[in-house]
Design goal:
By secondary structure, this protein is an all-alpha fold. It contains twelve helices and no strands.
Length: about 220
């Protein structure tokens, strides 16, 4: 199921009525989210505290991305199992306008630095089950993936701090993202991705996506 514009509108209304909660939290003392992530990487107790806070801070995100980071709509990305540094970079990209999505750009403005850190750590810590069993195109997709994509997104497609995880990602979201890079439609820009999808070829997008979304 895909999420529609009218559905997003209804979330905005629900969000504004719940804003007093988040907005009160947003006025708490700010600390740089990237520094908090660096500290939590060295400090297990802090990591656990932030993950617990993240569950609460993400109550609104869960409407679309799911409580455990497995999204409820096939055109909304899973956040589970994604590296916290990658997730934080995307939040910052929405905020700076480098990445465009009207709803997400507006929503990110309400998060304070501690909420950003706690939400990304919570989602990063959640497991990602494969979305569906491999389909008929998955074997071709696996070969093409190793040829064109694995050098950055890694052989197991689990990504790293620099490259997003693709294994188990939502089918429609993957297809939409790949076509956007291919056609340089402007929501995001990263030249090496445009080059990789150009080499892959539009006709092979479905096969690679079939493989990736079925991968554990
Ligand atoms: C109304 C549905 C909705 C809600 C609620 C929502 N998101 Fe999103 N989110 C989306 C969609 C759709 C995208 C993909 C945007 C695009 O196409 O680039 C997205 C993308 C993202 C991404 C980028 C993921 C990636 O793989 O690059 C992050 C990070 C994110 N959201 C975090 C959050 C956080 C944190 C919250 C809560 C504060 C939240 N979102 C609430 C719909 C939602
Ligand atoms: C040179 C390294 C590189 C190669 C090769 C590459 N990617 Fe990427 N990919 C990236 C980076 C970096 C990003 C994040 C860029 C951004 O923030 O827009 C990305 C983003 C993506 C996204 C968006 C993920 C999300 O959660 O929003 C998808 C899907 C993707 N790549 C799939 C692929 C596929 C499929 C291939 C092979 C055809 C491929 N990539 C090849 C580096 C690479």
């Amino acid at each position: 199921m895909r999420i529609s514009q009218s559905r997003i509108g209804s979330f905005v209304v629900r969000f504004l009525t719940g804003c007093s909660l988040i907005c009160a939290a947003a006025s708490a003392a700010a600390e740089n989210a990237a520094e908090l992530l660096a500290r939590a990487a060295q400090d297990t107790a802090l990591h656990q505290t932030l993950v617990a806070e993240g569950r609460k801070a993400a109550f609104f995100c869960a409407n679309c991305h799911g409580e455990a980071g497995i999204s409820k709509f096939s055109n909304v990305p899973n956040l589970a199992g994604q590296h916290p540094a990658y997730l934080l970079r995307q939040i910052e990209a929405f905020l700076s306008g480098a990445r465009k999505d009207e709803f997400m750009q507006g929503l990110m403005k309400v998060l304070n630095e501690r909420e950003k850190a706690s939400i990304v750590l919570m989602y990063a810590s959640r497991p990602v089950p494969p979305l569906h069993p491999p389909g008929p195109l998955a074997a071709d997709g696996a070969r093409l993936y190793q040829q064109h994509c694995a050098r950055c997104h890694l052989v197991d497609a689990h990504g790293s701090k620099d490259f997003p995880r693709l294994a188990g990602q939502q089918t429609d979201y993957l297809k939409i993202s790949l076509r956007r890079y291919l056609t340089q439609s402007g929501e995001r820009f990263y030249a090496p991705m445009t080059a990789a999808v150009t080499q892959l070829g539009e006709r092979n997008i479905d096969a690679v996506v079939d493989y990736l979304s079925s991968r554990p």
